[in-house]
Amino acid sequence: VSRQLKEEIRRGFARLEDPLAGLLAMLESSSDWKGKGPSLGHCITTELQLWIKAHPAVPQSGTKLKKLQARVLGMLSQCPANLLGPLISIYQLHTADRNCLLEHVSHLYLQGSYKEAAVLSMKLKLQPDQDVEKMCTPLLLQDKANLVEDYVAEYPELQRKLLQTLDTWCEPSFNIRDITRPYQGLPGYKPEKFNRRVLSKLVFRLLEKFNVDPALCPNVVNQRHLRTLNYLFYKRFVEKTMTEENWGDHIQSTVGENRWLQGHLVQLLLRHCPARGAARWARRCQVPPEMLPRAVAEELQKLHLQDRVEEVTKADNSESSKKKDYYQLPIPRENIHFLQTWEETLQCWEKVLQPGQVVGVDMEWKPSFGMVGKPRVALLQLALKDEVFLLDLPRLLEQAEAEGEKEKLSHFIQMLYSDAAITKLGYGMSGDLSSLVASCSALKDTEKQMQGVVDLLAVDKQKVDGLSPQHSHEERGARQPEKGLSLLVQHVLGKPLDKREQLSNWEKRPLREEQILYAASDAYCLLEIYERLCKDPESFGLGSDLTECLVGKQSKKPKAKKQLNKQEAPSPSGQECQGARTEPSGPPAPISPQEFSVVCDNMLQGLGRYLRCLGVDVRLLGNEDDHRKAAEIARQEGRVILTSGLPYQTLRSQVGEGRCFSVNCSEKVKEQALQVLKHFNVQVALSDIFSRCQ
């Protein structure tokens, strides 16, 4: 709007005896302001709002104002959202009779103008006097969850009522049709967006956003725990990629004393174990005997201490026979130190913070299995040539806070990462740092300050091919194919990592011996890989300048990268560390869309359809599919997972770094697609467009 027009509008107001009545008369006799775009009516209204601020004596009160307010209320149902705020301010609608305002909103609601009723309620702050279930139900049916979120945003009590309502709808015996029946024929109704799976995801998002105790929503929590149980049984009895002790820890912490989950545990045990095995686990998980089928209850009575000892011994023998198939630590057990006090940790610092030191760095955290909250690091591993230090982060942070030195740990970590004279080795370090920041917020700028960092994921992307993984796989018999760091260890050192402890409960203390050895191996193997590759890069299919690339330029200060998402690390995929972005051999080899296979999580269906238009081989998860189905498809069909937000943390651990990419959901589909194509170096030709069936 030109300055000349604005000045003319303001002069017009000054000449009017009653500017408020004048504006209302103009709006009532015109209709140009009813559209969504800019209009002269909108311009005049906003200018009056500004003019009134400069002339505080103008606003009226008393009977005259009430009459104007009544006329304005009659117009609000036709009013676009951008005019609501100015009109409410000009005519002081927040001072109008509250019952009158509620009656007007109710009239809008009964007309089927549910969105307009909700928006006006928010503008007038009427929510505490309304029925949150009644106001929000039609909005959810129209897939307006963001508007529902805004509706309760400022009212904790309404947040709790909404969450309890949604949780009730997710109860297995609840009939969803009882909710949808009164709204048959509702414009914009999306039945595929209104089911228990979608509502459950919404509940968890709102629990986290509003920081509400998940215990308020027992139905969705139980359903999520049940999916976790099914997943754990799949990992143990189908994939066979979890040790018995590790699996047992998670089963116990997931089921607890919940009778409903205990009942499902018994059913799963009978499906996967003989009666004797089911009885043994029922005892360990303290399932009440009255919940057990007769055959399991009889076996439970027969169990004696000697039986359990024999079974454990047999299992131990079986486990030890498998160890020779995996990478083994070359240092003695006494050189692995589990640090829980600051006195021990200070001795560790003196050894680690030495110029010229090479340190393997890794981190572990308890798997969230899709529950609320971001993973917090439970263990920080630092490997040197002759010893490995395992830092109990929660314990050390607790001690530091009790001593009034909360920043002590973050100071050490920042010194380590910012020292160019110390070489830090990692694998997909950016994702680790994201979880480290969740544990210690003082480390939020660490990634920008990193120097002397080598992320071996960058090497892995050069297709290290010193050994044939297929040959090794055949020698070891049927087993899940290696991926991520384990595959790199197999290529370079001859045997893969034993990853059966990867999904352990890393917060439980004391750690089991298997966990300690796994954690130490994860960090120490980085030293051996780095040493082997630097000595003879060409024999592994790498360029002869690998040593110069990794050692000579690794301390170059990285450029800060725009934060993509409040939930995510600066690297969108969490798969490469910026400090290590030294481009040892440039970007990944270019591939065509026909060679690129992905599975899109259900919040990225638009991106999936766009990529398919470009010729990419795409599989889409349905709205009711669990996120973990993406991992199953990725493993079975060799696809890359495209996901976003919290599911990324869970999925990346199931397929390994490099095979799971986190997309920024705040971007438009085209920008998301460009991000994916650039990251994986997918070259799209004209002939690729619409080359696949849409």
From TrEMBL:
Keyword Cell wall biogenesis/degradation: no
Residue ranges of domain 3'-5' exonuclease in the record: 336-538
UniProt xrefs under SMART domains: 35EXOc
Biological process terms in GO annotation: nucleobase-containing compound metabolic process
Keywords: Exonuclease, Hydrolase, Nuclease
GO MF annotation terms: 3'-5' exonuclease activity; nucleic acid binding
Region spans: Disordered: 557-592
Keyword Nuclease applies: yes
PANTHER family tied to this protein: 3'-5' EXONUCLEASE DOMAIN-CONTAINING PROTEIN, EXONUCLEASE MUT-7 HOMOLOG
Stated name of the protein: MUT7 Exonuclease
Upper taxonomic lineage: Eukaryota, Metazoa, Chordata, Craniata, Vertebrata
Gene: Exd3
